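Reopening this ticket.

The earlier resolution said the output was attached, but the attachment link was broken on my side. Pasting everything inline this time so it's all in one place.
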Amino acid sequence: MSAAVRSFFGRPIIIGGGIAGLLTALHLAPEPVLILSRTPLGSEASSAWAQGGLAGSLGDDDDPVLHLADTLAAGDGLCDAEIATRILHTAPNAIEALATLGVRFDRTPEGALRLGLEAAHGRRRIVHAGGDGSGREIMRALITAVRSTPSIVVVEGVEARRLAVEDNTVRGVWASCSMSPVFLGTGRVVLATGGIGGLFHDSTNPLGSCGQGVALAARAGAVLADLEFIQFHPTALDGHGRPMPLISEAVRGEGATIVDETGRRFLEDLHDAELAPRDVLTRAVWNHLANGHRVFLDARQRPGPEFERQFPTISSACRGVGINPVRDLIPIRPAQHYHMGGVAADGSGRTSVKGLWACGEVASTGLHGANRLASNSLTEAVVCARWVAESVAGSPIGVRTRLTAREIPSPDPISLRPLLSRSLGVERDGEILREAVSTLLPLAKRHDAASDPAAVGLMIAIAALQRRESRGAHYRTDFPDRAAIARRSRLTLDEALATARAFACSRTLEEVEQ
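Inline output:
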């Protein structure tokens, strides 16, 4: 790679090889673009694991206004209504455009898109590809398109470690590969690195996704938003494997029920029961487990014999642990699934650092608010990738700076997972959060493999402490009620470190959390 580094100077650099990154590169064509992917394309991207598909108002009985209403309701007062309106009105055309790139969507015998139902949606509006293999099929098509586009260079096995920033402006990327660290000079960088699942013991995401994009942006001085809002999926396959296989919400959309070891549907008193918003359902399952019960998904009657045809990926995961979904109950428990927070980004993906954009799960656009509506995430990535590309293409190339390569450790969160899982889980408590902050502060300031994951965890913990209410996916046992005024959170790494140091100096909780 070192021989070709000079030829890459000045090109837009996209960090991440999931749907958001690949689509942004395709929309930038024919401008030369460099994609940095830590692993071979498609091997560890959360996008490839997505089961639920894309949400869009494509049915005859649907409309973007109805989709918006469901999104705002799920977001629990924190959605940016303007950006949500723009994204959801664009969604139907953006989804259909994927077919022109070779995505094989599921269709009816008449050729119309087959639409599924998921929790908190008032209409059938989920578009699938390959049943529960939507992400895998979309990635297949996009990888094929990227490989055949001459203007896109994909460099696999290279990990971005730091952004070079001068005067709040991006100047390049320090990266690491098998041979040696390298510096890539550019004034245009797009973060498309996915989520934070690797910070948790129980997650449905690749363990290698540990908030690298959030860390890159934070170390560069960018503003982060809504970090405390982490969605836990209520139905992950409860077994020994990690990451945990997801049992898609679409299974419940087809009629599967949730029961305990006695066979009782303990959610019957919950509004919408199995199709309640994810945060509500997750807490109900979590508390039933905490009370000593086991929890199962019962798909024996519905979808019943159709299970394997409709959900081949889930069926394979179940059979891998000796469960036949047509005959057996499926043991489930909540697991970390999606991060609504991330790098604060506007409608074009621009961040607070000049020359830095964010797209996909790493970005916080305001679409999801306090609780993501099912299947809106892939939709957001698909829609916003075009807007990000248009913004990048219209921006100056920037100075081609050459800096000495730096050796920066690869992030490894394994030592932090017990702490972060306990303090930042389904239910939070102020005392436990304060203990986490005290532990994470010195780790975040070190220069080792745990420092970046510790910095991300520290910022999330500070944001969770400062939100003295329960809203959406953020639930404080010591502040169980929702505040009267809804507000999004904003935080930089310097602010988080200062707040953490205030704890260390024994300032009162009231001074710190205001």
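Reporter confirms the inline version is readable. The CA atoms of residues 234 and 334 lie 4 Å apart. The chain is about 35% helix and 15% strand.
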